[in-house]
Amino acid sequence: MTLTDLLFGRPLATEEEKAARIGPGKGIPIFGLDALSSAAYGPEAALTLLIPLGMMGVRHIVPITLCVLLLLAIVYFSYRQTITAYPQGGGSYTVASENLGTWAGLLAAAALMIDYVLTAAVGISAGVGALVSAVPGLQAHTLLMCLGILVVLTVVNLRGVQETGGLFRLPTYLFIGCLLALIAIGVAKTLLAGGHPLPVIAPPRLSRATEAVSAWLLLRAFASGCTAMTGVEAVSNGVMAFRDPTDKYARLTLTIIIAILMVMLGGIAFLAPAYGVAATLPGAVGYQSVLSQLLAAVTGKGAFYWTSIVSILIVLSLSANTAFADFPRLARAIARNGFLPHSFTLRGRRLVYTPGVYALAILTGVLLTIFGGVTDRLIPLYAVGAFLAFTLSQAGMVVHWRRNAGEHSRKSMAINGVGAVATGITVCVVLVAKFTEGAWITLLLIPLLMGMMKAIHRHYGRVERVTALDRAVNTAELCRPIALIPVERWSVISEKTLRFAWSMASDIRFVHVECEEEDERFQKQWRALVEAPAREAKLAVPELVVLRSPYRFVAAPIVDYVLQVQQQNPARRVVVLVPELIEKHWYNLLLHNQRPQLLRSLLRSAANPKITVIDIPWYLNPLGR
Amino acid sequence: MTLTDLLFGRPLATEEEKAARIGPGKGIPIFGLDALSSAAYGPEAALTLLIPLGMMGVRHIVPITLCVLLLLAIVYFSYRQTITAYPQGGGSYTVASENLGTWAGLLAAAALMIDYVLTAAVGISAGVGALVSAVPGLQAHTLLMCLGILVVLTVVNLRGVQETGGLFRLPTYLFIGCLLALIAIGVAKTLLAGGHPLPVIAPPRLSRATEAVSAWLLLRAFASGCTAMTGVEAVSNGVMAFRDPTDKYARLTLTIIIAILMVMLGGIAFLAPAYGVAATLPGAVGYQSVLSQLLAAVTGKGAFYWTSIVSILIVLSLSANTAFADFPRLARAIARNGFLPHSFTLRGRRLVYTPGVYALAILTGVLLTIFGGVTDRLIPLYAVGAFLAFTLSQAGMVVHWRRNAGEHSRKSMAINGVGAVATGITVCVVLVAKFTEGAWITLLLIPLLMGMMKAIHRHYGRVERVTALDRAVNTAELCRPIALIPVERWSVISEKTLRFAWSMASDIRFVHVECEEEDERFQKQWRALVEAPAREAKLAVPELVVLRSPYRFVAAPIVDYVLQVQQQNPARRVVVLVPELIEKHWYNLLLHNQRPQLLRSLLRSAANPKITVIDIPWYLNPLGR
Prior knowledge:
Two copies of one chain form a homodimer. Chain A contains 21 helices and five strands.
């Protein structure tokens, strides 16, 4: 068992793909973590903006959450339909580019790619941030811990979707269980107490209102609350990861995720005003998260409280995993259309789109390093991308239904139409509300990314156009090449090279560079050991060309000579046979000059298609017989 | 004019070598800086050990200096003779290995190499140390300044010996002028005052004696004073750098350097007791160097004082340059005998042995970095190497004179014999006196270096034995190779590769790796576009070999197949033609898979001498017509 096997697991054959697929049990931890974990920060984000309103503000969370839930329901129904229509996997990118055209597709692609990198970075740093606020001694190691989690996530995801789902199942279901229990107990207590339950541990006293309600404030609170909806896209992109019938299991998984999320969001919005829980100012003394206050108020600070808090921390940091599950699939879809490097379509040993995992890990690592592992300021950036993708996906579905008129297509078109309008409005709201907070960065990056993808596509197109061949192979004008061989002294290596040259060329020239005056010895030896035997055996007699090099350069005069020979024989191919001594150990490199390598790269940079370089390796320690 | 030209100067032709040679005017700054600058620290080192003796100690500097001067005279006469006997350059290494055998030569080589690296590191850090003690604000940048000076020295030396001599001439002669003037004025004042001159600025009061004189103390003081003799070797190594007649100019240069050094050492030893100047404890409050005290006592702190101090600082840091002048020549001499990599014998664009300069710069840089630019503790280490080299050189010369009996050979042998015995005794004294202070490190490094050089020699010997060829080229059993071509799809690149294969092989097989189920399209296209036309043109019909790859590896199945074909045809050569798309920009690399490179390195690591890889480059942007 090699180290690679130990780290990433044994290679999976392409045929084993079906066995590597998953059901909803593993689908929820893999594709749902991002969406579900947002229950921990979405309501909090909205409530934070409502702080200046005091108790009135807490009450406003109810209508805001209702708006979010409505939007969520619309988006849910649209994506359900998308899964049905695109059982091969239909993320916003696929839907938008197939129905709205290339540019719309690229817009969705750019928005989503930015969104996933942000999800990964923000998820990891949120988890570490929560841990650091619990154990302040770890503060100095924030970045190191972030990168450590990133490495673990990368390795786990490279091991394949089965493993990831298995590993993340426990914390995910623990989190879901705790939050649903909290809501159940809280709601029961509230109803029993006639709407005014007595908190076990009272939340901090509410500060008095310092502002009056304004539409602008509510709008901004709504925009913040919308971050709770990021990650809903994931399942539709990963349909192919599910067991057959893929679309059925994908829909089931999506339904469960959305249902749980709605219960969580609704429950929190119901309990917060009932228990008088408001947000506290992050970063200020006495800060406590909304969920922590709610847990303490409903159940006190017992075992349940601590279990829940720990599960929230874990799920937050694992929410980055949704990006790992989805980004490679998205990149693959884009690459299949030629807008990203082809290598994103390759599956590694565990049937995962390995290059996508690496790319996400690298981008996330860079982002984390730049921000020192503290990415709070990035949170406003990433609702824009998600909602932009929602909108394009649904607008695309509208076109889809119009094109594929069927039994339910009118109804479906209506659902997606409402979705498109609703999410479209939300994009505008989020953009306006968060423009100065950082949404402008997303707005700047998206066209850059789109330009890059377009350039890649153009490049591939050009290569394809130039290299494609539909006609029969050209069998005319074949002629034997001219063989040139650099030689320093007559050795078994030159002999091997010459014998090779005889097998392919009739015009063979050895090129010898003379840096200082040399005696006749080499040339005499040459005549005796090479020319005479060749003549006797009736083989092509190799010519010895001696080049003077006043400036002691060796590779450059050879390159000049090769180019000159090629120009004098424009119809013929020039082959340069470079003898090279190859040793076993890298440190032996220091003992021999690197002229063969230099010659090779100089000839290559000459980019002359009529010149071919052949390495004739001479192994000091041959392994073959 | 390229950047390289600007930095290093235009290339010099081998024929221009004579013009690049120097006379004594430039020879003294190049080869004498190390020896001359030691006047600034040799007496100081001896006086520091005499501090516990109080005023008595200062008087003991006179006999100690007389011993050093005697030794210096002996060494001078011996090296004069060496230069005459070895006008091609005869450092200790050459003399010892030619007369005393390989191991003695390697011993001298190892001692000298260590010595030169230490000279470079200590010289630079001494200069920077002096600067830092003058401007304490620079303390934090010690290492950076050391490395900066190292880079400057490296570049200047790469520009060639002419430039170096020209650049260092002014500070060197300023230093010599100042010190000689100081001694002349001081001696004149002393004589006029009847041996008891009145200091212009009185040196710090002498502390009272705390110890009695002991032979051990005087021995240690002498050993420290001997550091003043390092660097004397340099001229004999660099004879070939001088104008014709080389030996005459080299001897003249050596004579001038030694004469000036003797006057300086003698003058300081005379003036110190006369003016009552003793050493102060380095690192302690009120530390002042002996030369600074003497300058102040003789001339006061005027313009002359400051000019002298500045010239001492500059010369100290430039003393490292002697190592740069000599190490490459030494390494070249060793490499010519096959005990160091051959590349040390190559001259760069400015006729300098460039690899030696780089090697010294790297080793010095590493040493400076390890010690953070503070290498005071290394000073004790480097008298051992120098005196070991002296001894071996002179013992070698004794043997030389016995072998080449001539007119004066008896006298010469006597001179070198006395020198060998005297320096041999000094090696023992220095070793014993400084063993615990660090001389043991030198004693440990020398055998390691010798072992390394011996191993290099053995390796070269093996390669030479295995590859040398004295017989005529084997013209029997030439047969055309089997050509294998990896192919993904039929393109102009595959066409070019096939046409190349036709020119050299009759058995051609295309190898296609199938990772997922593919349809028949490729094979149909193949039959129509390749097989049929080949048959029609009566060319070798290439076979299409399809390899299934259940684990989606592409390069590995091809390598396995190549090895298998080779084993099935043990008598024939297998040629793998690897088509490769080559683009102009490095970032385009990201857009295409690196399978050609992977395949190449896998085949190379198979180290099968019967397998040859040929790159068939296909340039997207050809430069040739």
